[in-house]
Amino acid sequence: MKFNNMQDLREELDLLDNKLIVLISKRFKLIEQAAIIKDDESKIRDNERIESIISRLRNLAEENSISADTVEKLWRFIIELSIDLEKEIFSKKQ
Looking only at Cα atoms, what is the longest distance across the chain? Predict the structure, then answer.
């Protein structure tokens, strides 16, 4: 995709941001469900699962010509936010 001006490019970015917000919302709703399902706070952080996710997404990033390091940083941040949310929900259900 090639743009001739910043206005058109920004409009496209805004559309993508809108879609990302919808997807992020869906992801965090699933995280809320995970917190409800888990019966022990120690199950919130699953390092093996985290590393599996990171490995899968690094490969996907490379397949899509995006920096695997950037994707890893982004997903580790998302995962930490998810863990924080799970802990918050878990503490409320006790």
Answer: 56
State how far the Cα of 38 lies from the Cα of 35, in Å rounded to an integer.
5
What's the CA gap between 66 and 58, in Å, rounded?
9
**If you write DSSP's letter for every residue of 11-69 in order, what string do you get?**
HHHHHHHHHHHHHHHHHHHHHHHHHHH-S-GGGS--HHHHHHHHHHHHHHHHHTTS-HH
Q: Which residue has the tokens 């952080």?
A: 45
Mean of all residue pLDDT scores within the chain: 96
**Which DSSP category does 93 fall into?**
T
Which of 91, 87, 92, 86 lies closest to 32, judged by CA? 86
pLDDT band at 15 (very low <50, low <70, confident <90, very high): very high
Find all residues with CB under 8 Å of 9, minimum gap 6, and list them.
3
